[in-house]
Amino acid sequence: MIARILTLVALFLNGLPASSLAAGQAPDYYLPAATDYAASVPSPEAFFGFPFGEWHLSSYQLDAYLRAVAAAAPDRVRLEIIGHSHERKPLHLLTITSAANHARLDEIRRHHLARWSTQAPAASSDANAPAVVSLGYGVHGNEPSAMQAAVLTVYHLAAAQGSDIEALLDSAVILIEPLRNPDGSDRAAQWFNQHKSLTAPSADPLDREHNEGWPGGRFNHYWFDPNRDWLPLVHPEAQARAELFHRWRPHVAADFHEMGSDTTYFFQPGIPTRNNPSIPAEIVALHERIATFHREAFDTAGVLYFSRERFDDFYAGKGSTYPDLHGSVGILFEQASSRGHAQDTPHGLLTFPITIRNQVLTSLSTLKAADTLRADLLRQQRSFARETAAAAAASKVRAYVFGDDGDPARAHAFLDLLRQHRIEVRPLLEPVSAAGQAFKPGSAWVALTDQAQFRLLTEMFVQRTEFEDNVFYDVSAWTLPLAYNLPFAALEQAPRSGDVLSAAPEFPRGQLIGGHSDYAYLLDWSGHHAPRALQRLHQAGILVKGLTGTGLELSPTGGTRARLAPGAILVPVGLQPDKTPLIREIIERIVAQDGVTVYGCGSGGSAGGPDLGSPSFAPMAAPRVALITGSGVNATAIGPAWHALDQRAGLVPTLLDVAQLGRADLARYQVIVFADGAYDTGITDPTVAELKRWVRQGGTLVLMGRALQWAARKEIAPLEFVTPEHPVTGRLPYAGAADNEALKRVAGTLFQAEIDPTHPLGFGFGRGQLALCRTHTIILKPAKSPYETPAVYTANPLLAGYASESNQKSIAGSAAALALATGRGAVIALPDDPNFRGLWHGGQRLFFNAVFHGRAITPVRTGGDSAED
Questions:
Q1: Residue 863 has what pLDDT?
Q2: In 160-197, where does DSSP find H-type helix?
Q3: I need a surface site. Which of 196, 251, 474, 604 has the fewest CB within 10 A?
Q4: CB atoms closer than 10 angstroms to residue 376
């Protein structure tokens, strides 16, 4: 049936004048003209009041249309809201199948999930089992042909009449997520629509319509790339998506995207040598078999396309790879983008309707493939569990053990992530020593490799440094315990462990040791949510101080002797007696909601180290933070800083556009953050001079990525860099130039750093070590002063991922963080993003230390005495 549809669509297209494609089109441009549609279901053109593709739809228009279709075709379509975006926009799911299947949908789902088990029922039950197909659209907001194609696909499946469509709906359960990123999509739609010329769209690639203003619509509310969030699950959109995936575990999961306007259309398979090694061979084979259906559709329609190049299937947190690791066939589709309504390209005029049509064609060819290969997909589903069990049995690794690093709240966040991915975790019941680390019952857990999620578990914990192909489309490593900076080890013998944790882990409440006090409280800074606890106190106007130096010992009333490391927060209640009740209330919230250990102090004397009235306790004013945003700034670098402050610390920063920097009163801010970006053309020399003056007068300037190089060029800070050497001898083939040059890059590799826990940037790092994800070759030399390089990469820093020997040698011993005292202020240089993708819970502390403790960085005179102003 779908083959006939595709042929009819192609015949219609071949007879359509190219000049008319710049406008919106009637439904039969996109859908088969010979198909009858139920009049009771509103067509997109009738509902929206204009030819489809003439305007970009908003998420609100989409929501209204989906509700109308679901109301008009309840026998085929069920609409539900599976979550909401950050901006509280609904995330829709349409379940489309026959009325008979809807009547037993839960039974179908339960039997379907059972087939993923080694205890699956007999194969004879597969005879009437439908294929389960997921069609996901619009994870990148400025790739709008995807969402628009979803509208037409929904209309066709809901309204098409005849025996062929009835047969398809009987043999398939179709799950459609029409818009996975409504926040970004609305930004893009607004831009494209408001810059469209109304006489006719401008096809000039330089037209404003085709060049979005910063940050563009690709990203979500916090400027993250949502298609990199399948593994981290940082955002509500990804969390809802993951929950849906595990609710159904589809046979086929299609993911619709756009790419550069000068290309054509890509569908998988990707580069054969760059498949994730945990993907089953049968999934790779099915990629190729399903691709024949897309080729047939595009050959008939005269559409250019390509496969087996440019894109890979390696990073486990991408929308096509994540399903593959679960036995689903994840398929990436990439349509050349019109980036607006019409654009001149090397392949001719590319219009919005053309891009929509092509996405509809592959939506239908995906359904045809799943329908035709249904028996093979069911066989693959059954074999996946057996093959996964066999791979687990053959693995030398029998278990992974990990501990809480003395921070139960950080471990809780990791446990919750594992739960969302259906990883089975058990409490450790016996002490284990491995990889130079000790793991103890009560603060450590075990994930046995003998479990259904063996493949994903392996990808989460593996430290892979050797690859079939050393070139990657995205990152080459993502070892999750390293991202959380938790101690872990792979074990060849499983230790004794308890029952699988069956529910969401309970948040670890902190302790109030010594009871409430009218004198003072001390807060341990090592807790994951200590920055949030501190911000609670700041917001309430509570006077606080931070412990510098080497730490102290306490003997709290009713408690055992305890040692507090540098960074501990002092709340001197006696200096603000009128706030005693308020402070008590906040302390209770900190213990219960932030999981922080608090000590009630009845005396100002310590059992060892500085007393509470010592100058070692430095005043901590509430920091006002400006994040530099706008043209030239890497949105995915500053976005995680915004998210960390706003969502994890409760501190609302100022998003200061780079164009406003020269007019801003910098004295309003205590901290200014320049993330990775290109700043040479956006900031004038007078503004640079003012920024230098602001630092000398007490400001904390935080630099990341390329901002370090800009600051060095502008002499804001005396930063020096290492240039890796990549000697080449003789001639090389021109065709291999791109891959050869790619081997010189560092594009998502994990490196080990040592950090000084007595330095303000190292506060809370009890083990004195930290893994960071490096995505470039900006290699920073240590400072000339021995006290200004609080973090350095180790002599053998590579932990996971690819880096050439030359890059490894250059990174070894280089600075992972500099803290340069300048006048009364400081410049903090962080070559690598400590908030990387919101996943780097371990590195995030480095950023929070810069924000909250940066003012404790003071000059050191020769001889060790602190300088005084």
A1: 57
A2: 163-171, 182-194
A3: 604
A4: 16
- Among 416-420, 606-610, 740-744, where is mean pLDDT lowest? 740-744
Beta strands in 692-814 (DSSP E): 700-704, 721-722, 749-755, 769-774, 779-780, 791-800
What predicted TM-score, i.e. pTM, was given to this entire model? 0.94
Distance CA(259)–CA(120), nearest Å, equals: 40
Whether the CB-CB separation of 413 and 648 falls below 8 Å is answered with no
Token pair in block for residue 850: 């810069």
Position 558 confidence tier, pLDDT thresholds 50, 70, 90: low
Would you mind telling me the total number of residues written for the chain in this entry? 869
Q: 404, 438 in Cβ contact below 8 A?
A: no
Q: Which residue has the higher pLDDT, 746 or 543?
A: 543
Cis peptide before 51 (omega within 30 of 0): no
> Which tens digit of pLDDT belongs to each residue from 636-652?
999 999 999 999 999 99
- Find the Cα–Cα–Cα–Cα dihedral 361, 366, 372, 375, rounded to 10°: 180
Residues with Cβ within 8 Å of 516's Cβ and at least 6 positions away in sequence, in order, are: 584, 587, 600
Q: Is 47 exposed, middle or buried (0-12, 13-18, 19+ CB in 10 A)?
A: middle
- Burial per residue of 539-569, b for 16 or more beta-carbon CB atoms within 10 angstroms, e otherwise: eeebbbbbbbeebbebbbeeeeebebbbbbb
Cα 512 to Cα 521: distance, rounded to the nearest angstrom:
9
- What are the backbone dihedrals phi and psi of residue 559, each rounded to the nearest 5 degrees, phi first? -125, 165
Specify which residues 177 forms β-bridges with: 136
